[in-house]
Amino acid sequence: MTRLFNDPDDFRDELVEGFVAANGRWVRAVPGGVVRSTRGDEPTVSLVVGGGSGHYPAFAGLVGPGLAHGAAMGNLFASPSTQQVHSVALAADQGKGVVFSYGNYAGDVLNFDAAAERLRADGIDCRTVLATDDIWSAPPEEKEKRRGIAGDLVVFKVAGAACQAGYDLDAVETVARRANDRMRSLGVAFDGCTLPGAKEPLFHVPPGRMAIGLGIHGEPGIDETDVPTAEELAELFVSKLLEEVPDGVDLAGARVVPILNGLGTVKYEELFVVYRGVHRLLTEAGAVVVDPEVGEFCTSFDMAGCSLTLLWLDEELEQLWTAPCDTPAFRRGQVSGQHTVSAEELQAKAAGADEVTEGSEESKQHAEQVARVFDAVATLLDEQADELGRIDRIAGDGDHGIGMQRGGRAAKDAARDAVGRGAGAGSTLRKAADAWGDKGGGTSGAIWAAMLDALGQAVGDTDALDARAVAAAVRAAEEAVEKAGGASVGDKTMVDAIVPFVRTLDERVEAGDDLGTAWDAAATAAHEAAEGTKELTAKLGRARSHGEKSVGTPDPGAVSFAMVVRTAHQTLWG
Amino acid sequence: MTRLFNDPDDFRDELVEGFVAANGRWVRAVPGGVVRSTRGDEPTVSLVVGGGSGHYPAFAGLVGPGLAHGAAMGNLFASPSTQQVHSVALAADQGKGVVFSYGNYAGDVLNFDAAAERLRADGIDCRTVLATDDIWSAPPEEKEKRRGIAGDLVVFKVAGAACQAGYDLDAVETVARRANDRMRSLGVAFDGCTLPGAKEPLFHVPPGRMAIGLGIHGEPGIDETDVPTAEELAELFVSKLLEEVPDGVDLAGARVVPILNGLGTVKYEELFVVYRGVHRLLTEAGAVVVDPEVGEFCTSFDMAGCSLTLLWLDEELEQLWTAPCDTPAFRRGQVSGQHTVSAEELQAKAAGADEVTEGSEESKQHAEQVARVFDAVATLLDEQADELGRIDRIAGDGDHGIGMQRGGRAAKDAARDAVGRGAGAGSTLRKAADAWGDKGGGTSGAIWAAMLDALGQAVGDTDALDARAVAAAVRAAEEAVEKAGGASVGDKTMVDAIVPFVRTLDERVEAGDDLGTAWDAAATAAHEAAEGTKELTAKLGRARSHGEKSVGTPDPGAVSFAMVVRTAHQTLWG
C-alpha cells in the first residue's frame, strides 16, 4: 500500500516538486509538468509525453537528451488537463513542431487532442502517436483500440531518438508509428495498488491467483489462473506474443528487444528469473535478442504485476532504440552538445498557455455575468458536495461530490482572475474550463472542462450575446460533452440531463421566449431528467441490498448538471 | 510477497543466469558471481563487491566501468562463500591488487576475509573497506560495528571511480575509507519481505506502525511509531542524521549528497514526496545539496521501507562521486576507452580458485580416507535431516537439517572430485569445505566451511599423519570455529560439543592412546555435551508451550557435530 504522503490532495504537486528537486540536472518545472533543463546545438522536433501520475518512471522520468522534451503530469492515474499539456508543449517547442505520445486512454486522448488544437491555433504543427501495445485489451484487427502499457517506452525512445537525429515532423511521426506497429505487450497482475490516502486497494486479485491482461489502472483482465512458476509465466508471455509477430517479420533471425517490466512490487530478482526463460524461449524460436531491458519502466504504485513487451526491430528502429539518451530514469551512452536553459526562459514560454484575450466592452459585461454564475455555483457545490458524494457511492466510487466541489472552486477563482485581466466572456469561460479540468479531476472534471471550453469558444470575446447565440453556444457545449464522454441518451449518464436541457432551450428560444424564461424551462427539463436518474440510483441501492444484479449505472453527473443550470438561472434572472 | 520462482533452491542460480542474459553489455558470469565484460586501456586496481542476493541493484547491478569490477553473489540474504569471493576476485584482478567492499555483516566478513587470505596466498594484494552506515545499529563511538545498508553504494562508487582514475591500492583504500567515515544512513520499515517459496514474511511490522532502524534483513530496529506523514519522515531522517555530522564538517555551506533509497514496495512517487522535505530541510540547515539520488539502490525483495543516506563531500569525494560510470543499474555520463573481454579468458582466470594441489602418495591415501568419511557423513545427514530440523525448529528457524544435508552432499561430491584429480588430504578437505560453504548456506554452512578449511590447511598435502598431527589439526579447526562463530563454551552453541571433543582427543593422544581409541573417547565426550543441549532444547520446548520466558538458546549444531564425529569413527575404525 501507499503509506507516505501528506495531504493526499497535494500528492501530485508535492511529488512534482520533489522530483524536480532531485533531478535538476535533467528537468525544470513548468506549469503542468516538466521540460528539459538543457537544449541541443540545433533546434529539433519536440517530443511531449505524459499521462496520470503513479507510473514512474513514466512519464517525467523519461525527459532528457535523446528521449522526451517534456512531460505533462496529471493527477494520480488521471489525464493531465488540456491546459497542462498545452503549457508543457509550449515550453518544449523549439520551432520545429511537436509530437505528442502517450498511452491510449480516453481521458488522455481527450486532453492531448484539445491541446493539439490549441497548439495549432498558436501556429505550432502537432502530431500524435499513441502507444497501443496491450494485446489483451482488444483483438489484433482493432489494434488502434488497444491500451498503452509499458510499450510507451518503446514509442517514446524511438521518437525521442528520431528528434535527436534531426528528423523532421513527418519523419518522426512515421517512425514512431512504425515502432508502435511493431511492438506488443502482455501484462499480468497478482494484486492491486492503493492510491495515497485510500483505505483499500483499487482492486484485489484473490490470493494465489494471477489476472491475465489486467490493465495498469486495474482495468479488468480477460482471464485468471493460479500463480504460475516463473518458467510458466515466461512461456505464457512468449507464446502469446509470438502469436502476434507483425506482418513481414520472419521469426527466424528476427531481431527483437524484450522489455520485462515490473509494475511495483514484483522485484528485480523475480524479474531476472522470469527473464531467463523469456531469453531462452525467444532464442529457441529463432529470434535474436537485442539490447533487452529488465526493470521498472512503467509502474502502477505498488501494484504486484509485470509485463513483457517485444519490439520487432528493423534497421532504423534498432539504430533509434540503441541511440544514446540521458534522463532521470533511463540512460545510455552519452548525448553530446547539450547546454543548460534558464528557468525564466521556460516559464515565459509556458506562460503562453495562460494568456487571455481582451474582451469587447459588451463581452466584458458578459464575462462579469459568467463570473457571478461561477461564484454562485461554487457556493452551491460546497453545500451539495456531501449529497452528490452519497449518490455517487451507490453507483460509483463516491468522488463526484468532492470532484465537483474542487472543480467549481477552481473555476470561480479562474473566472474572477480572467475578468480582472480584462478577458471577454469566451476567454473567461475557457479559463474556468481549464481550472475545472486541472482541479476537478476524474471523468466529471474532464467533461466539465470540455463543455465549458466549447461554450467559451462558441461565445467568443467580441459579440454581444442574444438568446439565439446563447442557445447555439449551449448546443456546441453539448456536442463537446457527447464527444468527450462517448455516451448517448439512455446510457444513464450526465448526457441524460444535458440533452433535454438543450432541446428545451432551443425550442423555447425558437418560439420567441426571452432567454431567462427559456432557460428556466430548460433547467426544469434537466431537473426532471435528473430525477429519473435519482430514482434509478435509489432502485439500484435497493437492488444491491437485496443482492440483485445491476439495473444499470445512473450518473450523479446528471443531478449535478441540473443543480448548476438552476443556480445559473437564479443568479442571472432569479 | 515473492511469487515468481521455479524451485526455490534454484532461485539464486536462475536469477544470476537471467541477470547475465539481460546485461551482457556489462557483465559476464564466472563461478561465484559476475565480472565486467569490458576492460579499460590501462590495468587498474580492481573493486570486488558482494553479499547475499535479494538486494538488487546491490550488488551485481553495480558492476561496470567506473564502478565495481566484480560482484560475488551469495544465496538469498546469505553471504557468498569464500570460494565464490575468491573466484570472482581472481577473474576481476588486473595485476594491481584488489579492494573488497561490502556491508558489515558477520557472514560476509568471515568469507571475504578468508578469500582475502587466499588472494594473498596467490600473490595478490587485497584490502577491505566495509560500509558501516546504519546509525541505529550501534552508537557513534562504535561506528565500525554498524551495519552497512544503502550507503554501500557510496563506498562502491567512490572506490570504483578511484580505481578508474588510476589510484594505487593504498590510495583507493584510503579514499574509500574516508567515504565511509563521512557517510551515515537511517532506515525505516513498514513491513517485511517474503523470500521465494516462504509462506510468511521474514517479519511483520504491525499495520499502521513504522519500525525505526530496522535492518535490511529484518534485524530488530530500536523504536516503533505510528506511520508518519511524508513530511514527518523527512524531518525524522534529516534531524537524526544532522546529529551525526562528521567531525570537521561545517554545516553552513557543507556540500552533501542525499540518497533516498526505497527497499522494494515504497514506490518512486512516495519517495519524491519525502525527498521534497529532505531537500528543503537540508537547505534550511545551511547545507548545499549536490547530485542527489532518489530510487532503488539497495532493496530487500518486497520489503516496505526506505532509508536516507547522507554523504558529506570534500573536493576529492565530490569528484569521485560525480565521475562517469556505466553499469546495469547505475549510470552517469560516459566512460571512455572500454574494450570487450572474452568469456573464455575470464573463466580461465576464475578457474584459479578451483585448483587442487597434487598430494604425496601418503597424503593421497589419507585423501581417500577423507572421501570415505564424507560418503558416510552424507548418508548420515540424509537420514538425520528431519530430526535435526525438528530440534532446530524449537530453538531456531528449522533450517539446520536441510542445510547440513545439502552441505554434506556437496562436500562428498567435492571430496570425490578432488581425490579423482590427485589431490592430497589437505586439498581434499579444503575443496569439501568450499562446497559445504557454497551449498550448505546459513551459519552452519559458514562454520563447517571454516572448520574443514582450517583442518585442511593444517593437514597439508605432503605429510603422513600420525595421531599428534591429527590432534593438532583438529585444534586448528576448533580455533577457526571459535573465530568464525564468536561463541564460547556455555553459550549453548556447536562450540559446546567441539571443545570437549578436542580436549579429550588431545588428552588421550598425549596419554599414548592410538588415534582410533582416542577419537572414540572424544566422540563420546562430544555426544554427552550434545545431549546436554538436547535436554536444554526439550526444556525450552516445554517452557515455550507453558508461555515461560526463554531459558537460553541451544544449538542443534552441537548435536550434528557429535553425529558426524561418531560417523567418522565408525568409517575409519568401526
TrEMBL record, chains A, B:
Protein's pathway? Carbohydrate metabolism
Q: What are the DhaK domain coordinates in residue numbering?
A: 7-330
Recorded source organism is Desertihabitans brevis
Could you confirm whether the keyword Protein biosynthesis appears in this record? no
| GO MF assignments | ATP binding; carbohydrate binding; carbohydrate kinase activity; glycerone kinase activity
InterPro entries on file:
DhaK_dom, DhaL_dom, DhaL_dom_sf, Dihydroxyacetone_Kinase
Alphabetized, the UniProt keywords read: ATP-binding, Carbohydrate metabolism, Kinase, Nucleotide-binding, Transferase
- Gene3D superfamilies attached here? 1.25.40.340, Dihydroxyacetone kinase, domain 1, Dihydroxyacetone kinase, domain 2
Domain (DhaL): give its ranges.
368-570
Instruction: State the protein's name.
Output: DAK2 domain-containing protein
Record PROSITE patterns: DHAK (PS51481), DHAL (PS51480)
Q: Which GO terms describe its biological process?
A: carbohydrate utilization; cellular response to carbohydrate stimulus; glycerol catabolic process
Keyword hit for Cytoplasm: no
A single GO cellular-component term on record? cytosol
